[in-house]
Design goal:
The chain is α/β, with parallel strands linked by helices. It has helices at residues 30-40, 62-73, 90-93, 98-102, 107-115, 165-174, 188-197; strands at 4-7, 13-17, 22-23, 51-56, 78-83, 121-125, 128-133, 146-151, 175-183, 200-205, 212-217.
């Protein structure tokens, strides 16, 4: 599928798929959306604690990059797993301008995210390890392994099968008790699928350009 690199409204870049009229991040702002959804409303809930993170849709590496920066800021230990069925090429990823937009002093780290091997744990610093798994989301079988899930799959309009009760049931199993899942999406059908899978679900204000988002908690 053809992929184009475009600039979003906050100056940061993303990848656009013309065939689907879909982009990897919000056209209103890739970086600001990532910080709002995944850091402010997810990662910040665990400030100062060592945690394990599962990302559904590793994509351009933006979410793992900002998580690394936040972990470094708070001296926080992170075991990060990014799942991606169709990885972005290193050449495409390195055209993203996230280092310049966020923290140019860590440009080497952003390159490492895309150069380190798949299917093994890579220690990128004393407190951050990254495992990239090439895997369909429907194949995830982890149980009580993660504190936090970044659910960043393509939108319901183009891939509704990724927002099903069955997939959220797998996410529920993958989380530890009191674990949290955050996503940019807020369709009623998505909320209902989360509820059917066992989650407690809350609507929150969305990132700029989007009215609402969802946060789900596994509370046994």
């Amino acid at each position: 599928m053809k992929r184009e690199i475009i600039q979003t409204n906050d100056g940061s870049t993303t990848i656009y798929l013309p065939e689907w009229n879909e982009s990897y991040h919000s056209k209103h702002g890739a970086v600001q959306e990532a910080y709002h959804v995944f850091i402010k409303n997810g990662f910040s809930l665990f400030e100062g604690k060592p945690i394990s993170v599962l990302e559904i849709g590793f994509g351009t590496g933006l979410n793992s990059f900002i998580t690394y920066l936040e972990a470094k800021k708070h001296n926080q230990t992170i075991d990060y797993v990014g799942v991606e069925a169709y990885p972005v090429s290193k050449e495409e990823a390195l055209q993203m301008n996230y280092s310049q937009e966020i923290d140019a002093s860590n440009s080497t780290l952003f390159e490492q995210l895309h150069e380190c091997p798949w299917e093994q744990k890579n220690r990128l610093s004393d407190n951050f390890s990254l495992t990239k798994r090439k895997q369909l989301f429907q194949e995830i079988r982890d149980e009580e392994a993660f504190d936090l899930i970044y659910f960043d799959a393509f939108g319901f309009r183009v891939q509704p099968e990724l927002w099903s009760e069955e997939l959220f049931a797998a996410m529920y199993k993958a989380l530890k008790n009191k674990g949290v899942l955050v996503t940019y999406a807020c369709r009623t059908s998505i909320k209902n699928a989360m509820l059917a899978a066992g989650f407690s679900v809350k609507k929150l204000p969305g990132a700029p350009g989007k009215r609402e988002m969802l946060r789900a908690v596994k509370d046994i």
